[in-house]
Amino acid sequence: MQRAGLESLPIIFFTNMFVGATLAFLLVLTLKQFGAAVFAVDMVAIGVLREFGPLIAAVLISGRSASAFAAEIGSMKINQEIDAMRVMGIDPYEALVLPRVIALVIMMPLITFVGMFAGMLGGALAIWGSLGNGPAFFVQRMYDYVPAVNLFVGMIKTPFLAITIAVVGCRMGMTVKDDVISLGRQVTTAVVQSIFLVFMIDAIFAMLFNGFVF
Fold it and tell me: Residue 88 burial (CB < 10 Å; 0-12/13-18/19+)?
């Protein structure tokens, strides 16, 4: 849980903050032409809560944890440690895969929530600098016009993303052959496949919750 979650919080926080700030700047720049720059608050909050917070967190965790899981288990397989575990009657999936899946499922909601907070913080600072409306205005408008259902839509997908990332990383580690070249290939494949599946799952949830009103 510490390696998969707590140690990744700084990069999750700052990346989401920069994404939120960039999104806010673009929205203010576009909406100013129509005299509707104030709606940038609503759009930033909805975008971060529903999509960008969970998605950015999952992509970064894919690059960080899926590769780590594949490398750790793959190295054990090269060193024949997994074969030794089987000889001793220890199930490798129960001892190596299950703890990693459970840890990521537990930590992913926390990581996502921190990412959502950071994204809205970045958006609030960008809007403050662009429009002169302080963070209190951002919070009040979000409270008035952004329903809590958007937070639910963002958080409900996190366990599925976590399971996907952990399973892909562990599966690629288990399929490593007895050479270092195979280890490098499987680690790369774990990252690519997990990121691809993260985007696919996010798109599926976006379609499923398309009827939920903002």
Answer: exposed
Percentages helix, strand, coil for the chain, rounded to the nearest 5?
85, 0, 15
CB atoms within 10 A of CB 146: 21
Under a CB-based contact definition with an 8 Å cutoff, are residues 41 and 135 in contact? no
Q: What is the count of structural domains for the chain?
A: 1
What backbone phi and psi angles, to 5 degrees, belong to 36?
A: -125, 35
211 in a structural domain: no
Q: What percentage of the chain exceeds 90 in pLDDT?
A: 56
Q: Is the pLDDT of residue 214 over 60?
A: no
More confident residue, 210 or 143: 143
Quick one: pLDDT at residue 213? Answer: 54
Q: What is the pTM of this model?
A: 0.88
| Nearby residues of 104 by Cβ (< 8 Å), 6 or more positions away | 4, 5, 61, 65, 162, 163, 165, 166
Residue 114 is assigned to a structural domain of this protein: yes
Domain residues for the domain of 127 are 6-204
Please write the tens of the pLDDT for every residue from 91-116.
989 999 999 999 999 999 999 999 99
Q: Residue 213 falls within a domain, yes or no?
A: no
Residue 210 placed within a domain: no
